[in-house]
Amino acid sequence: MKNYEELPSDAGSNIIGQVTAQANRVQQRLASVKHTVAIMSGKGGVGKSSLTANLATALTLEGNTVGVVDADINGPTLAKMFGVRNATLEYTPAGVKPAMTALGTKLISMDLLLVEDDAPVIWNAHSQKDAFTWRSTMEVGALREFIADTEWGNLDYLLLDLPPGTDRLPNVVELIPNLAGVVVVTIPSEVSQLVVKKSITMARDILKVPIIGIVENMAFYVCQHCGEEEPLFSPEETPDKAFQQTMLGRIPFDPQLARASDSGTPYISEYPNAPASKALRQVTKKVQNFFRKTEPSP
Fold first, then answer.
1. pTM, rounded to two decimals
2. Interatomic CA distance for residues 151 and 145, integer angstroms
3. Whole-number percent of the chain with pLDDT over 70
4. Helices (H) and strands (E) in the chain, counts
5. What angle do CA 36, 38, 43 make, to 5 degrees?
6. Spatial contact of 184 and 286, defined as CB atoms under 8 Å apart
7. 3-state helix, strand, coil in the chain (%, to 5)
8. Distance in angstroms (rounded) separating the CA atoms of residues 25 and 96
9. Handedness of CA 263, 267, 270, 273 (dihedral sign)
10. Beta sheet of 99-100, edge-to-edge order
11. What are the tens digits of pLDDT across the range 269-294?
């Protein structure tokens, strides 16, 4: 397959110029962002979006300016979790103003562009069979537009909530070569660990992206009657031994967290004394400490 430079003609579309201009806009936007972090797993259903929403909220409560990109183009959920699905995006000469949560976190998501709850993301093509051939390319293009065309302003953190799949991080690194790091999410099951190991290898050994650490979600539940911690799964290895990476925290299962996400309420501020909130704040502090250690001394 030939690349763009090898094609004899672009039929007047100037595709190379368009892609180059958009890539330049991405870099211009990111120039005002201190730390760009991807939240990834490779495994679906482990709670990446829930972690992203609460990590962003916790960072905001710590006094940081935070933006979030819902990078799951086909299954966006963060607008609902943040309670901003009814937000109207404002288009200005400087770009699209992102949705703003009550606490001040900024968000861009495909969900904010869909007119109906049951509307799927459908790419323009002669047929959906044709669209399938270019779907990955079009998804990367949409993500590039989210970053490049959104008026983020100055941010301390820009978090990207990645969809499942070990192929997602390479797409992000292509857009953001200076990605500051990744937070890897897993649950304490052998099936999850099997998939997550592949994502860690991709990030660490192939793409050379710094791994900030591992978050074990749904690590256990706290008995409402006796207060004892009980496991939900029985893996052969703990995450620190399975992955040989820094553990950022173990988040207990809490039904209130799921209800908060469904209602668009920030769990970490609604239930500040809950065990899961305390664990999420620990994760937040370790993420901040990671960047404090890597920042040059004044």
1. 0.87
2. 11
3. 85
4. 10, 12
5. 180
6. no
7. 40, 20, 40
8. 13
9. positive
10. 99-100, 106-108, 66-70, 155-161, 33-40, 181-186, 211-216, 247-250
11. 999 999 999 999 999 999 999 999 86
